[in-house]
Amino acid sequence: MITRMIVSALGDRGSLVFLGLLGVAALFVALSNLLLPPGSALHVPIHIVALLGKYVCYATLAVALDLVWGYCGILSLGHGAFFALGGYAMGMYLMRQVGTRGVYADPVLPDFMVFLNWKELPWFWHGFDSFPFSMLMVALVPGLLAFVFGWFAFRSRVTGVYLSIITQAMTYALMLAFFRNDMGFGGNNGLTDFKDIVGFNVQAQPTRIALFLISVAVLALTYAVARVLVTSTFGKVLVAIRDAESRARFLGYRVESYKLVVFVVSACMAGVAGALYVPQVGIINPGEFAPANSIEAVIWVAVGGRGTLTGAALGAVVVNAMKTTFTSGLLAPYWLFMLGGLFVLVTLALPKGIVGTLQGWFAKRGEAKRVETSEPSPPPEAPAAGKAESAS
Amino acid sequence: MRVFAVLALFAALALPAAAASLQETLARFAANDFSETAKAIDEIAESGAPQAASLIDALLNRRLAVTPDGGVFFTDAQGRAFDALTGSPVAAVPKGAQLVRTNNKLRGQIENSLGTLRLQAPDPAKRREAAEIVLRARDVSALPAVRTALSREQDPVIAKVLRETEAALVLSRPDATTEQKTLAISILRARSDQDAIAALRAATAGAPFAIAQEARRAIVAIEKRLEVQAAMQNVWYGLSLGSVLLLAAIGLAITFGVMGVINMAHGEMVMLGAYTTFVVQEVFRAYAPGAFDFSLLVALPLAFLVAGLVGIAIERGIIRFLYGRPLETLLATWGVSLILQQAVRTAFGPTNREVGNPSFMSGAFDLWGLQITYGRLWIVVFTLVVFAGLLLLLKATSFGLRMRAVTQNRRMAASMGIPTARVDALTFGLGSGIAGIAGVALSQIDNVSPNLGQSYIIDSFMVVVFGGVGSLWGTFVSAFALGIANKLMEPVAGAVLAKIVILVLLILFIQKRPRGLFALKGRAVES
């Protein structure tokens, strides 16, 4: 039964192409780095592997965001907070692993605590020396925050832009809080100078490749979970809520429960993405909570096409590849013009994003040929994009 | 005029007596003996002679010389020579004059007496400052000098400070009578500040029980008053912060509150206003430095125009295609904000630009113990004027009427012949223009950098949402409430934590009342 559900959810052409391409690309990157000599034209240097790993984490975040925004109409401008919280949980584990190799060589306290003259570990740092506990926290902490936040927000029917604004306020408040030294998270500098992850050096080539592959696997898994969710009955209700919230409520669905579940699931996904992001970039600091980061994640989804999942992942990679290309070198001063232009252009001219537009195009072309209608249709799209969110 | 006449009379009467004793005093320098010099210093300090301060200053700096025939001369820092007895300038210090020697012990004494001498400085501000210094130091030996100064003081404000100084010194003297001390305590109690507390606290040690009790009571009373005063000061800071919030949010109250458009580029309109001020000031500096005080007056309409026109361009170019799609509007205007920031960064550079304060905005005054800076005061006043003007515009002009008609029922308004598209554009322009003039005011208290707008956008949205979207009075109340709450919490929690607490409270508040404090009544099921 469940297997059938999974097969039917992932058996469509989009999913197969996406997962297939993802797997091939991951294998190619890993093998070419390991096997090909550095001089070869096809060799992928290790810093590119780490960069791609970062993109893959962003893509996971984008898929998580697409799940709530594209399918349930919740525009969260605070998903960066969940991402960063997961990252901090991982960062805390990595800090505990440093042990006596820190500058101050304190066996228990991380360097910044010694520096701040702290005598003992704050209570919330306990347990982070254990890997399984930390991994649990990676998903649990963002999930819990999302649960508490969503519990209040959805029950009191805060919707639309109001919700967006308070999610933004949430991540802003967290940013201010994490910038404080007394919070016990390293303040301004955040957590950095990691050494080991489960006994392997984070800087070493095999670890980096393993982290990259795990990130890819997590992206695939996130996609699969999201895809199963949205193709199930549950997903249909989500779309109904997105398109006509009060109608869904009057039909007897507990709108707030549906929203809460999908919001929490999405937050956990974002947390896991953040956790994988940290060892690959080597630092986590309060800047990750900046409201601008969360909005940027929204634009990845919009560029790729919201309500498509694959589009979200694609958008994250495309926009970040652009960012990497254009923030270095001659064009650096113009990157914000491009990013800003992208926001405007996508909302005005390409409301369905890249994948959404392509899907629409394929659907139109296939319509004439196809007779069968029971074929799992391409993911539901917002009818004429605008009506998805009713006006405030 | 009469005051001067009286002063002149006093000077004329005092001079011969002072001069007589001064002659004897100056004779002590001729001995060039340390103990004689020490006596001379004290006598000069008490003489009240007009040249006393410069004389002792000269002694300290080895510019005081004695001639063999007993004449005493000194030179000032510029090298001009004076006769010590009369204080009148002379051509030069006579040949053969010997510099009066000093040692470390003397120098300490000289510095003390210079402090008390300043009590008689001709400049009232200096006299007052000297009195305050003596009060804080509580050097008992200065008591005679303070009394001398008090007997000569004409300025009632400085006389009051001197009396307080005298009281503080009396309290520190073991030999003062109970009546004197009780009087001193009541004087210090009336002064009612930290220095008074310090003086009173010193008096409690080793004093008779009744006096100590009295002093303690005075301390408690003063502390209570100071607390109230600190709270008042915080309320004032809160009002000031509230007016800043209101200024930043008021334009948003129009675009978001009245039109329902999420304009994430609102902060950048504020920034454009600030940069307009900068450009106007540069022009003034280059062409009319004398009229610099008027630069803000010129900047105000220009900032309104610049930000308003940019706003209209955004509305016509982007937002009008997105009406009814608030989330898309949010994203598109965020993009606009990035572009505007980068444009300003490219044009003016990424660093802070210097925006000057006109003279009427610098300085501060004291109101019942509250420190109030003119800059902040003007911003509060300016905010209220802008708010009143906006209310008037909305309620009493035909444009306001049309604007309200369009926002309440667009189709009906259109059928009545109102050009809705034009009203939309003008309304958006108005909101942006007001953000622009907010930028002029904020340029006076904040750093003018490309990131200026970013720091206000979240706060502005919070203010509008808290107050109730669509309600100008709600925005007004919410801005001041948030400002005061923030500043009252700051001394307890610290600035950052206070801000976090406010944000969390706001998030919780929105759960409870999603429509804000002053919700517009309507029958819409959905937002």
Automatic annotation (TrEMBL), chain A:
InterPro entries attached here? ABC_transp_permease, ABC_transptr_urea_perm_UrtC, LivM-like
User: Has the keyword Ligase been applied to this entry?
Assistant: no
Keywords (A to Z) from UniProt: Cell membrane, Membrane, Transmembrane, Transmembrane helix
A single GO CC term for this protein reads: plasma membrane
A Pfam family matched in the record: BPD_transp_2
Q: Where are stretches of biased composition, namely Low complexity?
A: 383-392
Disordered: where is this region? 368-392
Membrane-crossing residue ranges in chain numbering: 16-36, 42-61, 68-90, 131-154, 161-179, 209-239, 260-278, 298-319, 331-350
Per UniProt, what is the membrane topology? Answer: Multi-pass membrane protein
One MF term in the entry's GO annotations: branched-chain amino acid transmembrane transporter activity
Q: Where in the cell is it found?
A: Cell membrane
The answer to whether UniProt assigns keyword Repressor to this entry is no
- Classify the source by domain of life: Bacteria
Q: What is this protein called?
A: Urea ABC transporter permease subunit UrtC
Lineage, please?
Bacteria, Pseudomonadati, Pseudomonadota, Alphaproteobacteria, Hyphomicrobiales
From TrEMBL, chain B:
Look up the signal peptide feature and give its range: 1-19
Q: How does it sit in the membrane?
A: Multi-pass membrane protein
Q: Which GO terms describe its cellular component?
A: plasma membrane
User: Is-annotated flag, keyword Glycoprotein?
Assistant: no
Compartments where found? Cell membrane
Q: Which GO terms describe its biological process?
A: amino acid transport
Q: Which UniProt keywords apply?
A: Amino-acid transport, Cell membrane, Membrane, Signal, Transmembrane, Transmembrane helix, Transport
Mark the transmembrane ranges. Answer: 235-262, 294-314, 326-344, 375-394, 461-485, 491-510
In terms of InterPro entries, this protein maps to: ABC_transp_permease, ABC_UrtB_bac, BCAA_transport_permease
What is the top-level taxon of the source organism?
Bacteria
Question: By what name is this protein known?
Answer: Urea ABC transporter permease subunit UrtB
